[in-house]
Description:
Elements: E1 2-8, H1 19-41, H2 44-50, H3 56-77, E2 80-93, E3 95-101, H4 115-129, E4 134-140, E5 144-151, H5 154-162, H6 176-184, E6 195-201, H7 210-219, E7 222-228, E8 235-236, E9 238-240, E10 246-248, E11 258-259, H8 263-272, E12 274-279, H9 287-296, E13 300-312, H10 315-330
Parallel strand pairs: 3-4, 3-6, 6-7, 7-12
Antiparallel strand pairs: 1-2, 2-13, 4-5, 8-11, 9-10
Amino acid sequence: MTMNIxxxxxxxxxxxxxxxxxxxLVFVLFQRRKKKNIEKVGDRNLMDYLMPEHSPGRQIIKFIxxxxxxxxxxxxxxxxxxxxxxxxxxxxxxELIIALDVSNSMMAEDIKxxxxxxxxxxxxxxxxxxxxxxxxxxxxxxxxxxxLPVTIDYAAxxxxxxxxxxxxxxxxxxxxxxxxxxxxxxxxPNNDKxxxxxxITDGENHEDDAIKMAEEAKSKGITVHTIGMGLSKGGPIxxxxxxxxRDYRKxxxxxxxxxxxxxxxxxxxxxxxxxxxxxxxxAQTGLNVLFDEINSMEKQEFDANIFADxxxxxxxxxxxALFFLLVELMILERKNRIFKGxxxxxxxxxxx
Length: 352
């Protein structure tokens, strides 16, 4: 079987792309200040006459080309790879399905930067520690959706995790029971043991009978763990207004809504599912404790398709980086002396 998958060997370098908008802002501010300084010296037409070789347009082009070179260098450092050889191998591990709450209350900032982002960071670290285990991802609010079927492709798992946000599911609520039911039906059909569900939620606005579904999961040999995202004091839920202003969700009386962790309910779900409950805070999220629980589970052998051969493709962005740097060096900041007297639009300037 042959197919292709693209990934970066060192994706952390992609954060350097954040320098681009910052450098653009600095360049724009510098150009504006430079323009104002020239206008202070004298009339614009007079200054153009006194500096015939000055070309702001060329400086802008040089800067754009330089930014393209920077982007190419970042992609080169990230080491793009293309996997083309898919092989079937024997692995031993467990199957995990993480059900992540994406309701609006998960945007509360009592846990920094907010509950949802902290949960995503913790899941990403958990993925880094997995070796031969399968992992799947379900997102839920008022409804549940399978974000990623069980797989050992950890790069794909991280990619799907990164795209998770509160806009994925339009129906608000916290249907934990629905998420557990979907997870039970999403494990590999030929596996009847070594399975666990990890529910990550604040438990607020709980709607269905999650405890009953956790009991059913336990009866099928599936362990249900819960992680409570939130502090006992709770926190307001930020919202973005039409013109970018920051505000907080309010009730019908105009009072700011404080989202609080429903810890008792999550403890009951974990107990019914034969798992453990952990409350996250600003110091830790509890996935390390759960990882120890996962390691203590009996491993089962299964067949898995993995990409065994990745080719580095950094040569392409490296070529573009060198090309753009060469172009940038060839573009002069000033007009060519040979063509400085050429005026395409025949505009009248200052006469001698």
